[in-house]
Fold these 2 entries.
Entry 1:
Amino acid sequence: MLHTLSIGELGEKLKSAQISSVELTRHFLARIERLNPALNALITLTAEPALEAAAAADARRAAGEDGPLLGIPLIHKDIFCTDGVRTSCGSRMLDNFIAPYDATVVTRLKAAGAVMLGKANMDEFAMGSSNETSYYGPVRNPWDTTKVPGGSSGGSAAATAARLAPFATGTDTGGSIRQPAALTGVTGVKPTYGRVSRFGMIAFASSLDQAGVFARSAADAAIVLKVMAGFDPRDSTSIDAPVPDYPAALGAPLTGLKIGLLREFFEGLEPRNAALIHEALKIYRGLGAQTVEVSLPHLPLSVPTYYVVAPAECSSNLSRFDGVRFGYRCEQPKDLLDLYTRSRGEGFGAEVKRRIMTGTYVLSAGYFDAYYLKAQKVRRLITDDFRAAFAQADLLIGPTTPTPAFAIGAKINDPVTMYLNDIYTIGANLAGLPGLSLPCGYVDELPMGLQLIGPHFSEAKLLNAAHRFQQTTDWHAHAPRGYE
Amino acid sequence: MNLTRQDVEKIAHLARLSITEQEMPVYVTSLSSIVNFVDELSRAQTGGVEPMAHPLDGQHQRLRPDAVTESDDHEKYQANAPAVQGGLYVVPRVID
């Protein structure tokens, strides 16, 4: 079945002319038509442009071109601007917004010949951990459609798990790739801050946001990341460093790899979750790795730190949505103030407004030192803790989430309970570190993720460690029932 | 530290967000719980610690040469505007 094949296997079939990109695209479009209604993973479907792009990829191939993503379908999180296609960011505020340009991530994947099938549903403005805050309704987890897929990249995760596309793009500010990857049993990679361009990626928290990928294996993710990553002069925070050949580095042996077990991750960890991590560690030891215990004493402060820094940055970034130049405008504004306040009050959902107001509060006169400046200092302490840990270990291991996927509606009314879903993922965002989640088993018949965190620009090692694990286990090959 | 309704009204005004009468108590409660949650930061020892704005050390704002590189595409970019006239964005009267 075409949708069970890896990106490498699809590439082989395209290269040997067993299938065309048009046929491959039609296959996934048919799956989306049949299976997406139960999941609500897409906001916009671009079927006709996809078939045109597929035909163009076939023409490029006929002209002698080749490349690992040439003719391979994908879905973009609806946070990436896509020229001529609605880019809603999951919000009523941008429901009518047709992006006038492509994000760099989109441009690079297009240049490589990848075929966009549509735009994935997401938590509004990337704020959420369950994909329940979207203006377009919640996304459902293909493993159990009464459960959330995680967020904010819930649509991308669900679509990848349901095999609606071989891969999907996502973004991760506090865990929004890794957490939904864990809850939907797929592999999700958040690169080092600055590794992938943020040009054209609608900004939530500028010092935390990073674009990444969902795929069904580290090997597939490596292929995609190699195309996505790299310096972009149009992103002033883009790092000018060469991109390693991630696929070539996948098979390296793990002998001598020092894996750090974060004491703070294991404290209070639910026993069945802990058991899965310990099983994974046995496999890593079998592959030649050694484990060492490390401690990040300031890590427990990472969630409150994040919930000062991220809202502060979002309050600034979302001030551009004012009903004047683009996006939602309220009906019959009586004056300019009314235009601003009602366009924003009506255009934004509750969680977005909550975070804008939290950010406004912590940045306001009289509170800036106590909250924002304080949080930035704690951020440095957390980052220094990671640096010290990486002096003893090559990479860190732990759970991705505290629990498996929870029921839709279960946590949406208590923001702080929802925020604690990010407890294991947030530290990597604060320190700008790359992180990866891969499937490692089940709790209550729902997927669970193993998280790997590495030093800056260690994506090759993370992908290598994940790939070696996936050569020894087959959690990543499992499909949810009905989506095989 | 619980926020009052007046606190929330002031914050909402700074953020240019209209909050309905019905929504107001919900925001007072949820914002208070978030502020209480982040108050935990006050217990951290941060004497002599430099604040960190950028996750990677040693980064500077990159500059580019002062050369014209963009073209005038205002019609394309204004296609998404709610109200445009003569290349200008139309809003309710600002100055009487």
Entry 2:
Amino acid sequence: MRFGPVDLEWVADNADRIGELAVEHIYYTVVAIGIGLIISLGLALLVRRIPRLYGPVLGVTGMLYAIPSLALFALLVPITGLTSVLTVEIALVSYTLLILTRNIVEGLRGVPPDAIEAASGMGYTPTQRLMRIELPLALPVIVAGIRIATVTTVGLVTLAALLGLGGLGYLIITIGTNRGSFGITATLTGIVLAVGLAVIADLALLAVQRALTPWARRRTG
Amino acid sequence: MQDADPAGAVVAFEHVTKRYGGPGTLDAVSDLTLTVPAGEICVLVGPSGCGKTTTMKMVNRLIEPTSGRITIDGRDVMSLPAVELRRGIGYVIQQVGLFPHLTIGENVAVVPKLLKWTPARIRERVEELLDLVGLDPDSHRDRYPNELSGGERQRVGVARALAADPPVMLMDEPFGAVDPIRRERLQNEFLRLQEQVGKTIIFVTHDVDEAIKMGDRIAILQRGGILAQYDTPAAILAEPATEFVERFVGADRGLKRLSLARVRELDTIEPVIVRAGEDRADIRRRLDRVEELTYALLVDDQERPLGWIDQSDLAGSGPIDPGAATPGAPTVQPETTLRDALSALLGSSVQLGVVVDGRDRVIGLVSVDAIGERLRAPIS
Amino acid sequence: MDFIGEVAAWFADPTTWSGRNGIPSRLLEHLWISAVGLGMGAAIGLPLGLAIGHTGRGSLLVVSIANIGRAVPSLGLMGLAFLLLLPLGLGVGPFPAIVALTALAIPPIIVNTYAGLRGVDRELIEAARGMGMRASQVIWRLEVPVALPVILAGIRTSAVQVVATATLAGVIGGGTLGELIIIGFNTGDQVRVFGAALVVAALSIVTELGFAALQHAMASPGLRGRPIPPPEDPGQVAHAAGEV
């Protein structure tokens, strides 16, 4: 069945392979966000302890963010190999650092100071205070950052195909080599799925955020 | 005013000093020595920069003294890890600092949880405390702080501080963030609470009138953390130790002494209480029997005052018209100082104040004349 | 390391700097394609952002644009542009890239312009109207200057993204420095890949710093006390402007 130049039958026939690519795509994304979160949390706690470092940390992560992904891949290749997942992941993680670190820091800074003082005065240890009071209250801002980082990363994973790896980018670049209906179909499928994935991830994380912050929804008094 | 067996601990400061800069800079707290007897409220008061908050915070070691010793029931506060010390001291700050992401019940349960009480015991205690501060446990326990009004949040803060039944409580301008009317109520309620729990309380305020009202003893501090006078409010008002104290307490010392006496020390007048639907002729007869009253007090079905009904509204027969009542009877509570009561009464058209209890139910009436008489009597 | 030596040698080699695939030629191409993309994006985004920001209507549109701008991968955008222009016979050369870059440039500019204008104190605007300023005067003499830091932040974000994504034009045969990297990939010439990537990285950093300096310089001294907004992801700005 054709939809203009788009061949839906092809999509149906190759659903398996397409599904595989989608799963790969999700896998790359999750790994990148996971590692990015851990590193960013570490950086944020460092900045919390030594506030002077905030500027430099933002500067470095900002520079990393500015470097185009393709170039970053290329710069990593001599070290980590051309078709290596490591190359892609290092680059992907680097791009998440700016937004995640910034949001974790700002989130923590946004915790009401009187809550923090009360917590200390009542006898929480510093670690307890961080885990039970500060991080939970910083959660909305942190999750907002994770949402943005996730959507960005889903987009960037499409580039993994340029290094010969999988993911939905593989479909997108088909148009480069095949200008016929096959190419058009494949490319469009790749784009639609990538966008779809990003939107679903965003909404899912929004739901998670809402679920974790019941107090933000009720307002009176 | 105190129980025979106070539940509080003795807090003693021995030559406590806190210095921030090098030698030559003004001390935040300078060689402070005083003892707060068990179960008493000691108010630290003074102008800004006098070190009152710093002093309070040294008790739970949020600030560490530069030199000197602080003991609780003889035990040096340095002999415990700070975190453990703080779990045994109640802490209330001006902005309350309720945790927005925890329910009221969870907020109150914080310290008991840190002390690893059993869930059953915690639950019981939360219910007890919410009741104690005048909040219905069932309707408040599962709400979040942002659903409560400022006054309610203040009370949760106090409940939270009392949760683990600490012998000592620190309160830093706890009623400062609410309007004067609500503040007066909260002060009265807190004094009633203290009668029941009898903790040793260190209370910081910049408001001299609050200090006189709340304190069993007042410590007046001046800039540089120097103790100017430490004594009962009556003694300070009668004989200020230095010129600074005299100035700080204010030129209206005589009037302030009215703050030392409370409404409950007066003889109350029994009001003629009237409910909607009662017969006018009946009420007229009752009023006639009482010489001093020309007004009847209309109350609702919870015995709360609604307004005054005067003779002219009682002409004829049949049930009274509730709408005819003049609203705005000034209400005071037994703990209200005579000074505040006088203030309230002078502003009303009927020279009678209605005394109500914690639930706003009518207890009796007081008159301006009675206050005047009390003024003329010697203040003990 | 040998590899570093090889890269250095590649840079030293005069052929690297000459010809159609030489650095200067591709760099220039990269720059002018980016400039055109950014320019056209601004030409569309600024007026729209000003109109929506001044009137305050159409915030839903802005939020949607921000969301779409976030979700569509740049590679997909390139591919899409290529796809669409192919049947029109314009699939060759820099055209698809420019179209894609224009589309990419629009969201940060619209979102930031809108947010910047919305952030202007309502009382200031009332005062201006009270003094007798017409709508256009209110926009140009009051709103834009006050909102300038945020608007410039949007342009900066856009510029950085455009310069970065222009690299991908190489994937669809659109030239730019990215083409050098792709050629390197295809021929297995690791040295060229790395060298070209270095140039790209340097270009991006210069763009980032350059626009940051521009932001600083163009903010009115009266507003200098305020913190300059960092390169905001359009999504975050929309978030601040009232997105759910």
